[in-house]
Amino acid sequence: MITSPFSRKKRLLIVTLNFPYPLNNGGAIAQQFFIDGLLNKFDIYIATSVRDPQIIEEFNRHYPAIVVKNLFDSSQETKPGLLFTLKLALSRALKKLRGSSNVLREDHLESEYIKNLLILKSERFITLLDMVIRQENIEIVQLEFFETLDLVLSIPKEVATLFVAHELRAKRVQIAAEFSSTSKAYQNYLLNLTQLYEYSLLRRCAGVVVFNDDDKQLLSTHDIKSFLSPYGIPPTLHKRKSPSTSFKRLLFLGGESHFPNKEGLTWFLDNIYLQAEMPPSMPLVIIGEWSPEYKLKYSKYNYIRFLGQQLTIYNHFNESILVAPILSGSGLRTKILDAFVNYMPVFCTPFASEGIDFEPNSGICLYTFTSKPDFQALLLNDDGNLTEVAKRAKQFYDTHFDADKLVEKRLEVYQSLRARHTI
Predict the structure, then answer these.
(1) 6: three-class secondary structure by DSSP
(2) 13 close to 152: Cβ distance less than 8 angstroms
(3) How far apart are CA 230 and CA 355, in angstroms?
(4) Partner residues linked to 141 by β-bridges
(5) Cis (ω within 30 of 0) for the bond into 156?
(6) Which of 30, 123, 226, 369 qualifies as a cystine partner to 375, CB 3.0-4.6 A?
């Protein structure tokens, strides 16, 4: 049992545009893990922007003590402009003309996500957020995800601001530049602009939470005060009690809208999976939303199955191996932690295992690959060996992601917010 280091419960406001319910994405899972752990230690408020108020109602049935302030402003909804719509239609037409097998690789540095650093908030949003902070006597504001980072400029000076970096944008741009066909001058422009924007705002925060040591070391080189405070998987998602004893399929989790998912899956399919052997020894099941154009590219392969978004994913864990061919991003891979806690073996790229530092003497708890021969060798593992790997993964999770220890570490972060405030 953890006792609060504070003499009384503090008032914590979590500001997030990715609402922590339902648990259908990694960001929601990461947030809800700490909501569960901190509920008895803080009076928790959430400021968010949700179009469907029923989602908040369902959340409050599980968490009646949490006050949720919905700052949704319909006037701020953005619709694709005419030029974007025409470009999208042209792109789809060209894909059809070229044939589904010759779809050109997208350049991440050309994506709207990378180029649009700032989502400007409306006057109504800022005014209501300020009202919540002042009327509820909020003492700590916790900004979640890059899209809220600009809000540090609107928080009253007497309130401590903690930013939770689920992903470092400048790091993502730097990695994307390595695979980009754009000019070096353009790459430097985007990287320098992103660093200037992100790092200057991070320095305005009393502290920054990161999920792996590489991100912490990166921020320290830019004179940014950061804390290593990873999350775990909420207890409600600890579904399986033992590993499978036989393995018949590969499983990919994630949707197309998150670029690292699309980048990683495309690389894996085109360069690893479809090149390994024909047909592959194991079918690949893909869970998540993918566009008809993307699925069409692989429609001739009956051993690649797109199942779409699923209400529950855990029935698919039985007799499956998680494949996580992630090449970019930062933070932690929720899908890998979810596999660990639910006894599913993992094949992933070394980059995807960032933040999961297992000791060599403790035994292998996941397998990594970077090439076709690497992956072919992994497929030679027998069922017994994969079962043991899944057991070791669960042991690793229990040791390094113990819920009480992770919550205690986060409480130490709140205690340490002394850059401009005494908490």
Answers:
(1) coil
(2) no
(3) 8
(4) 13, 161
(5) no
(6) 369
CATH of range 10-74+114-231+404-415; options 3.40.50.720, 3.30.70.100, 3.20.70.20, 3.40.50.2000: 3.40.50.2000
Is residue 47 helix, strand or coil? strand
- What's the pLDDT tens digit per position in 350-394? 999 888 876 655 568 999 999 999 999 999 999 999 999 999 999
> Which two three-digit tokens encode residue 310?
């699923």
> Residue 50 contacts by C-beta under 8 Å, 6 or more apart in sequence?
19, 56, 70, 72
> For residue 47, what are the β-bridge partners?
15, 69
Q: Are strands 367-368 and 346-348 parallel, antiparallel or unpaired?
A: parallel
Q: What is the pLDDT of residues 71-109, one digit of tens each?
A: 997 766 544 444 434 444 544 444 444 444 333 457 888
Give mean pLDDT, residues 6-24: 89
What class, spelled out in words, does domain 235-400 have in CATH?
alpha beta
Nearest CA among 329, 417, 313, 352 for reference residue 145: 329
CA distances from 161 to 30, 158, 341 (A): 19, 9, 32
- Domain spans in the chain, listed from the N-terminal domain onward: 10-74+114-231+404-415, 76-104, 235-400
Output the six-digit token pair for 177: 């530049």
Other CB atoms within 10 A of residue 95 CB: 17
Residue with tokens 């850059």: 419
Q: Which helix (H) or strand (E) holds 97?
A: helix 82-98
